[in-house]
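Quick question: who can interpret this fold?

. . .
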Amino acid sequence: MMMTFWSAAAIVVSCLLGQAQAQDCMREHLAMTATDERPGTVAGAQNRTVNSLAPVFSGQSLDVVLSAQAVLAWDEQTDTVLYEKNADGRRPVASLSKLLSALTVRELLPAVRVVEIPRAVLATQRRGAHIRLPIGEHASVYDLLSASLIPSANDAMTALALAAANSEESFVAAANDWAVKHGLTNTKVSNATGLEGDGESYSTARDMKGLLRLAFRDTTLRTLLVSESGVLRTQEGTVRRYKSTNKLLGTYFPVLAAKTGYTPAAGENLAVITYGEAGQRIGAVVLGSEGRFQDVKTLVEWIFRNYTWP
């Protein structure tokens, strides 16, 4: 059944409040219980000893068929790996790298700062997703982060990179340093957006897990990673409305945080944190997929059929 990881209580709440409101309530509760600890390295968190709260494999199904080239799924509470496939293989990850860019921006710029939209964004408006930012106008860092993550707008992320470090090259250096500092040694970017053709860029499913978890612990980014739409308003009055690239939002599938990415070389990519009955949080990364949303749904359903929680 498609709703096997909804508890009876969640179904009752859905009936009383409506599906969207029920998921909002559950997301708020689970976000409040999320740790705000910021470990020195993600690698340290990944190597924790599994505790007595870890889910146990029941062995009802030995494998799951997915189109993705690299996969990692884990229990968020105990950091127990639930499924992996080529999790340490380096691959292009397209706009999933915007998680690293966003975390770097959060370190360099306050969300309330207002920055000018530079002419340099014109180049990224010719390539991939964008929201037609008006050159020379001014917008807040928060609004530009929102546009960078929800519709994955390349012009918004480029504007942030140039505001944070004066040049994209300097920003890339800062982002790569940030990755190393946080134990993400299999991640490297050559630009702020994840677009192809600017040099060597790669990550792994395991490093993307680390980036997603760190972004989820940032309350500002957490909100943006679950938003279905947004609005950017410049100081001069220009308005840009946009919708999320994540087709799981607004469906039966509950999402606590997610980021998409696609280029022809990288294929379809998705990193997501979801939840099941009793509020168990499950994370999943699929890279190089031919159907990322179906892969994630199939994987999560497989996990709930094959694991039990204490």
Remarks:
- Confidence is low (pLDDT under 50) at residues 1-17, 35-50.
- The chain has eleven helices and eleven strands.
- The two ends are 23 Å apart (CA to CA).
